[in-house]
Amino acid sequence: MAKRKIIMLVSDGLGDRPSARLEHKTPLQAASTPNLDELSVSSSLGLVYPIAPGVTPGSDTSHLALFGLDPYIYYRGRGPFEALGADMDLGPGDLAFRGNFATVDDNFMVLDRRAGRELPEAPDLVSYLNERLKIQGVRVALRHTTEHRFALVIREAGREAEVTDTDPHVTGERILPCKPKNASPESARMAAVVNSITAEAHTLLESHPLNEKRKKDGRQKANAILLRGGGTLSELPGVPVRYSLSAACISGTAVIRGICKALQIETPRVAGVTGDSKTDIKAKARAVIRALDEKDFVFVHFKATDAAGHDKNPELKVTMVEKLDQLVGEIMNGLKGNEVFAVTADHSTPVDLGEHSADPVPLLISAPDVFADGGRFTESAAAFGHIGRLRGLDLMGVLLNQANRVEKFGE
Amino acid sequence: MAKRKIIMLVSDGLGDRPSARLEHKTPLQAASTPNLDELSVSSSLGLVYPIAPGVTPGSDTSHLALFGLDPYIYYRGRGPFEALGADMDLGPGDLAFRGNFATVDDNFMVLDRRAGRELPEAPDLVSYLNERLKIQGVRVALRHTTEHRFALVIREAGREAEVTDTDPHVTGERILPCKPKNASPESARMAAVVNSITAEAHTLLESHPLNEKRKKDGRQKANAILLRGGGTLSELPGVPVRYSLSAACISGTAVIRGICKALQIETPRVAGVTGDSKTDIKAKARAVIRALDEKDFVFVHFKATDAAGHDKNPELKVTMVEKLDQLVGEIMNGLKGNEVFAVTADHSTPVDLGEHSADPVPLLISAPDVFADGGRFTESAAAFGHIGRLRGLDLMGVLLNQANRVEKFGE
Fold first, then answer.
1. N or C: which terminus of chain B has fewer CB atoms within 10 Å of its end residue's CB?
2. Does residue B50 sit in the same domain as residue B115?
3. CA dihedral sign, ordered A25, A54, A363, B21
4. What is the ipTM of this complex?
């Protein structure tokens, strides 16, 4: 039998719990999802623990697991994926962070972690820091990503370099001193470098004319940077070589694009695919079908379900599930019918919790010869599907098997 | 409660997927299986990943796992099991292969991997090679098994010896040069020895009178040997000691008999038990019941379901499932009713795929005090049975527990 192509669609934070605000339904149960319903009739269902029962995944660790890489082995912080996702180059010993512009007082006490959130000046402030931020003996590079956010890379920090966040993650506390996370000399040196960067950036930003203007306008100064997720890129096995698959990723979300780049998955830019609730569903589906012409494996990421969960907004999450359903329908229209089409999530973001949870996520696998479960695609139906329970690390093997692409172990 | 006896019946390649050629049923679903149906009514059902989700097992690696031995630790190639199954003795440093007689041209290009498949001369050619094949400094022994097949052993190769196949596994390619699979001097030496054997065997066979006659008759010459699965026997824990069980195996299939021998399971020869579709079901069942008089654990292997899957023949697989059902019925007739009787498979061989797959396999456990599922014994029913999902490595423990034979861990 011919090898099949694989589409893996991950809806970020899709999983949920019954919510009193949705008549004790989950957003998946409450939403109108005609396309998923149709797909589900001929699909096997199951639940996936993205990492393990009782482990709440980040999007980064979960995606590593869903691509078959144990995050306990390969994960060294989100920074490197954010930097790659922002199209920065990253060498093996480069130490990368996610960064925020923030507002602090004279004692480095954080008044606003996002400098008022409205920060159209962010690209200019990034350019300014790139020009003026000089730390003895190291090269530092920043790149603006979205809103008040940027990626920051310290070049040639050393492969062992691993340091703590300076971001206290709450307001009303001082910027944290950066500390080494292991005993290597690189980590000790980098902790000192990061602390110098924090101090120097504050000095430079505090007196910047744009901040003077913001102050005059009664807005929060963007007078500090907060860094988190600092790490170097581990040596990651590429998806194409590991699974003998040509592979593409359709996503507008920086960290996901960065993970895919790190795993040698091609990441074409698609106009209109924005990684938020305004993403152009038809453009995204067209990009998937186009990628499927050339590639064996197409990964698609849908972000907006997660954001609605973080916003604790059940109605918005229902709407975003319905948008996901449109994406599924548009993709179905372009398929030939002999593909393996999987829909799942990287973690749950329950609307009543507003954070990621460790709940298992629903999985649907459609292919010409699966054992069909015949129900709707919901968390509860998935709990009783033919697939049973998998761990994230098992998913690629299960999909490759359904695509008739697994090599035999033994004879 | 008294300890029970255990029968483990493995139907090779039994698992399957819904096939359009069987009205979207699997062979197990499509077959008439009155005995399995009757047994199933008082049985617990479940699914087994013989090795792990997404891993396609060979019969050899799977059987190791089903007997509780991790193939990632203990498996070193199929050759040693084939040699043991052919009743050859095997010392700890002996390097064993499976071999085929094949037809090659003057450039060692493989024209037919099975020398026309009809090869009644094979035993004579094996004797001839045993007499005449002389390689400086090593002892080589062959034994004929079935049709065009034999086992070949290089004595005292060294425990570390591990080399690649010379069999290209397809026609139209040259015999592969044998290469070492690890950095040990034994492997390097053995790769050279195997290449000498290949060359010398070709010279000897090319001019053999039987081949001259085959040529005159317009049949393919058996003028080369192809070797695969080369390895030494790892130190395997015996089933009887490991589980405090006396044990016997009823099987006509060389590799299975070899694995059982390697695990210290007795392997009586039973007249009529042939390891193919013609096997005498009644003789096999009688042998099982007889063995059960003396042994705590009787392993039974039924081969023909796998062959039908490899042949991509759904009707034949249905017929072989019905033959399996007869075997189950004959065994049931001989039981006292207080045994643990398990029926499962070593892997799936879907009829539409024609190869092993990584799909989980159905498991049935009958015993006086199981939670009965009450359905038929099918892949789909097994997905919703009381047993849930197991891995192959868990099976022996689960059966021993049902037989009231598991010792406590802790107090």
1. C
2. no
3. negative
4. 0.91
